[in-house]
Amino acid sequence: MEFKKYSKTLFFGATLAVLAGCGGNDAVTQDDVNASTDGQVQPVITSDGSNGDSAVNGEQLGQEAQNLQDQASSAIAALPEVETVYFDFDTSVIRDDSREVLDLHVAYLNANPAQNVVLEGHADERGTREYNNALGERRGNAVKNYFMVQGVSADRIEVISYGEEKPAVIGHNNAAWSKNRRVEIKY
Amino acid sequence: MPFKKWIKAAAFTLLCVTQQAVADLTIEITQGNDRATPVAVVPFAWLGQSPLPEDVAQIVSDDLERSGLIRPLSRSDMLSLPSQKSEIYFRDWSLLKQDYLLIGQVRPSVSPGVLTIQFELYDVVRQTRVLGEVISGKVSELRSRAHYISDKVFEHLTGIEGAFSTRLAYVTMRKDEAGQNKYELKVADADGRREKSILTTYKPILSPSWSPDAQHLAYVSFETGRPGIFIQNVYSGKRRQLTAFKGLNGAPSWSPDGEKLAVVLSKDGNPELYVIDLNTYKMKRLTKHYAIDTEPEWSPDGERIMFTSSRSGGPQIYQLDLVSGETERLTFEGNYNARARFSPDGTEIYFVHQKDGIFHIAAQELANNRLRILTQTPLDESPSVSPNGSMLIYATQEGSRGYLGAVSVNGQIRYRLPSQRADVREPAWSPFLTN
Predict the structure, then answer these.
(1) Which residues contact B381 (CB under 8 A, 6 or more apart)?
(2) For residue B61, which of A35, B41, B285, B326 is within the disulfide window of CB 3.0 to 4.6 Å?
(3) Domain boundaries, given as residue ranges, for chain A
(4) Residue segments in chain A with a per-residue pLDDT below the cut of 50
(5) What residue segments make up the domains of chain B, in order of their start?
């Protein structure tokens, strides 16, 4: 069943670079730390299919892409007011209630092709800091993939994860945590 | 249970005056031990002129008390203050139910600015000297000498190597006058004193990791706007940026031989473990999985790397055998187990464990996978083991402020190092100092 989800994601054009070895076996490759591979890094869908933590569902994406094309004719060029989307605990799944906000940003980006965007991924304070850094990046990548599938090119998008280091709301309760598990879309 | 006694609010003030501003850490013992060995640590006689900046015996007494295994006698209960054998009345000390007596003298040496410290440990029952040494040091080194005495006495009484001369690294965050978040990487003695800031920045700092020789710290700093791994000499302050890859640059962990650093990079699209050779800067990728792989930790023998992975869903602890290439899952209890650290002998691991929505520090014996929860506070993280394997320091929260707690690996002794002014997090206990 993991592979079913997986193949759907692949269908939407994800690069295979990392996913190719997803059997879970440890591979060793040689690299030189001085030789930056930044230029070679390909956008990768972070969907892993495990535990429902798939970043973006393929079928939904297709529908969104269609909607976007419909919107394209009426080019929305205004900078969207809402710049934050929220996530559930320990997942990077784009919530349904985030799609409207994300679609406005896609429309803005598509109407302004020179505009780049930074996606800041965040986590709530629970759990460990480095794991939360990874989680924040996954959330950023989930939004990045959502944008890419709808036509925003990868080189216009940068993802930076701050993990739990920059909470939007201070507090040790669900209300604060739910506001801190987020991606901020910054221009 | 004899260990259940809580010495609440037994905050004892360190009497000593330091040359520095108020340190961020003070020690407060929150749970002691009824079976601790009673030891009278008598104030050391000072045979010089101007007052000493440090009370050596008080530092020793505080060190021993913090271990939970030794219970120093209150000075106000002492009937006499001997500083040499001829002044000891053993009957007095046995009436006070003391098992051991530590006495000492500090005097100026022939070299200017250098002090001679003599200390002697007596067995009260046998009325014999069991330990004694004459050491010397500058006035500015009095605290170090005191911790040395603590190490010797502790080792004699418990058979455990003393770790009082070791250091702590941690990160503080506080709002500055302009309301900006100011982050500092700090190093202090194991008792929280002699704190020194080695990096100040307005961007997050995390994951300090000591080199095995306790000379360097590797850490993650966001000072460039993006995370990068830096290595800094703790004494000279000299530092270099090791990585600046696109994406995550995180969780540095030194190999036991100090030659390599295990790190997390997402430059290839996903958080994966890499090992960087610090001599050649060659990099080797260790994991290849679409899940999160992070928080590497070398085994003490250098043959394995333990890490956190979400490959089974939520975060769990895994171990990669560097020789065979095999990966084994180590934790199965609960749905959140992360950021594990090995005991110095490699037989146990300590990690963050979620139970009923609460994040505790837990220990697990590797031989039988038995898990025990060591801490009760709700947002505990970042356990770091003392190099003698007896205590863990960890970060926790009270109100809106983070502070550091310490707990013995058997869960019986605990104390806290509350912050006075800043949010304290990310503690890392140094290895034994070699110099």
Answers:
(1) A127, A128, A129, B339, B352, B359, B361, B394, B395, B396, B425
(2) B41
(3) 2-186
(4) 1-62, 73-74
(5) 35-158, 167-429
